[in-house]
């Protein structure tokens, strides 16, 4: 993945301990990576 969930949280100014949306953030990260690779 281009960005780790921690890096995405940093960019979105979310607390590192905030884990409620981790699966969603991972999905977003994979979507961005797939989009940039094509």
Poorly predicted runs: none
The proportion of strand residues reads: under 5%
What integer value in Å does the Rg equal? Answer: 10 Å
Count of DSSP-assigned helices: 2
Helical content (DSSP H or I, runs of 4+): 55-70%
User: Got a strand count?
Assistant: 0
Distance from N terminus to C terminus (CA atoms, Å) equals 14 Å
| Largest sheet report | none
- Elements, N to C (H/E): HH
Bulk shape = elongated
What's the overall average pLDDT, rounded?
84
Domain module tally: 1
What structural class do you assign from the helix and strand content? Answer: mainly alpha
Protein name: Phage gp6-like head-tail connector protein
Comma- or semicolon-separated keywords:
38 residues, mainly alpha, 2 helices
Structural overview:
This is Phage gp6-like head-tail connector protein. The chain is built from 2 helices and no strands. With 38 residues, it is mainly alpha-helical. It has one domain (5-37).
Short description:
This is Phage gp6-like head-tail connector protein. This protein is mainly alpha-helical. The protein contains two helices and no strands.
